[in-house]
Specification:
Mean pLDDT: 87
CATH class: Mainly Beta
Number of strands: 12
Shape: globular
CATH superfamily: Galactose-binding lectin
Length: about 200
């Protein structure tokens, strides 16, 4: 009986010691392994859906680095290229924002999140910008409080972003500067307020 009580106590202590480590390990949204990319359903969506001529590409290396590149065009009322996932169904209510490890071209991109929010019956995108350093890897943080509602270029500031209902994740370029672009992504992960600045 005593041995069983001791074993039970030791098991409880071990669980208590392991719990903080498990809690401190946030789920990842994207690590860009080839298998994960297929599961998440990443696809390019350009302004061609509105008659534009921009052209984006999205490829993933065996090492797990995604490259979103192409050429932005302002012709035919175009001006954007994007890549996005299929339906995620994620609850990120316990986090303060997203962090990304990226290598860019000096241009400013948008991180896009969709929830179940609707405007006039149509899906609302919530957008927040992040800058890149040309040719240099950097970790950037995008707080949830920076995300603003948007629909086809129209800003919807009254729409409320709800991080508990993440349905889709995307990256978009629409800086009104025609020409080639290239953004490499290593991973996208949520972060908590007390997470270290890098890691």
């Amino acid at each position: 009986m005593k041995n069983r009580s001791l074993e039970s106590l030791l098991a409880s202590v071990a669980t208590a010691l392991l719990l903080p480590a498990a809690v401190a390990s946030p789920p990842s949204l994207a690590e860009f392994t080839p298998a994960e990319v297929e599961t998440l359903g990443w696809k390019v969506v350009d302004d061609g859906v509105m008659g534009g001529l921009s052209k984006g590409n999205f490829v993933v290396s065996p090492e797990g680095i995604a490259t979103f590149s192409g050429r932005l065009s302002l012709e035919n009322n175009g001006g954007f290229s994007s890549v996005r996932t299929g339906d995620l169904g994620r609850d990120l209510g316990a986090f303060q924002g997203l962090r990304l490890r990226v290598k860019g071209d000096g241009r400013t991109y948008q991180l896009r999140l969709n929830t179940d929010a609707r405007w006039r019956g149509m899906e609302v995108s919530f957008k927040a910008e992040f800058a890149t350093q040309k040719g240099e890897w950097a970790e950037v943080r995008v707080p949830f409080q920076n995300f603003v509602g948007s629909f086809r270029g129209r800003t919807l500031r009254d729409e409320v972003f709800e991080p508990t209902k993440i349905r889709r994740l995307g990256v978009l370029l629409g800086d009104k500067n025609p020409g080639d672009f290239k953004l490499e992504l290593d991973w996208i992960r949520p972060y908590r307020a007390d997470d270290p600045e890098a890691g």
